[in-house]
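Progress note, project year one: complex with glycine.
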Amino acid sequence: MNILIVGSGGREHAIAWRCAQEGHKVYCTPGNPGIAQVAECIPLDEQTPELFLQVANLINAELTIVGPEAPLVAGIVDHFQAHGRRVFGPTAKAAQLEGSKAFSKEFMARHGIPTARFQTFDSLDEAVTALARFDYPVVLKADGLAAGKGVVIAKSKAEATQALEDLFSGALVGAAGSRVLIEDFWRGEEVSFIAICDHDTALPLPPTQDHKNIFDNDQGPNTGGMGAYCDDRILTAEQKAHILENIILKTLRGMASEGAPFRGFLYAGLMMTADGAKVLEYNVRLGDPETQALLYRIEGGFVQTILAATEGRLPSAKLQLSEGATACVVMAAHGYPAKVRTGDKIEGIEKAKGATVFQAGTRMDNGALVTSGGRVLGVTASGRDLKTSLNHAYAALENISFDGMQFRRDIGQKGLKRYTV
Ligand code: GLY
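Model obtained:
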């Protein structure tokens, strides 16, 4: 089957790799040099639903899988469906679950889905006055899409006021910050719970845990994610059943009842509190780098499961998963997550045995692979248990180098504290 993957990051490399493993002819637009090893890449200068459709038509794509959120919010699925092209992802209306934080929080409140107390503001003065009603640390969130940069955790009133000024002025994330949410902060462990969904049915994928801060021990500024691991033990069977029923299926029923039925990957970013799982945010796509760890556990049936979801047959789909655990360690560029330096030569990927290196911010420059974005590589490995998968990933990573590279040495350590292996 001809499959088109939309996107150019590590997540899309993992999706393309999995589809190729299952014997399909894979194309990717715009792609990157790593993806080009498993798929035919079609560069695009501009990214609009119409241009993506033209690519799908050109290669006669029988299935299109959309990686990032921006094309989903821009209506790629609506556009493909209007032209009879099979695509997996939510419509623009359903993608509001990620596209507008205010929509998603109000949706959760309407449907009794557990989430933090919040208020939404359209003016700086009102937001600053409202800080008196919240304790510190406090969470400040841009309403719109902000590529992972729209959330600030402020420890004091001075920090919160400064962040609100930066959000409303556009300095932090542009127009995405013209509406801002203030939320209570929760302590606890975060878990990414992702399900393949179609209207009122969901096939939950194994839980994963991301590592958002740039430095070890969750220090330093937030990033898109510096590493992830996938291990069934992250949640108990009871917790998984509870989350599926009270968060995922409740969300699907709520969206359907509001005239926006959801088909696609639904990602609930959860905080595990003493009082159970609470939703920090929704994403309407697979996570990055969660996908790299997650798809590395799949041994078969990925494409057939997606196809089943597009045909109303999701309950009959069979996804084969490996035992054990997987881990992905992200290697990031100099300066990330602030101003990133690009053009550093990457060496040693071919020596990284025992792991698969998914590429994200890379490009070819005069025949050499160089850095071209914040998160550069995701070194991904499996093992009979978490400790073994981490050993494999870190041993492979030791062979890779580029000037200014940054990576965390404690990926998976929270898991190892719980289970020791
Ligand atoms: N790793 C977090 C995300 O994909 O949003």
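The first strand starts at residue 2 and ends at 7.
The chain has four domains: 2-89, 117-184, 189-321, 325-420.
No further modelling is planned for this target in the current period.
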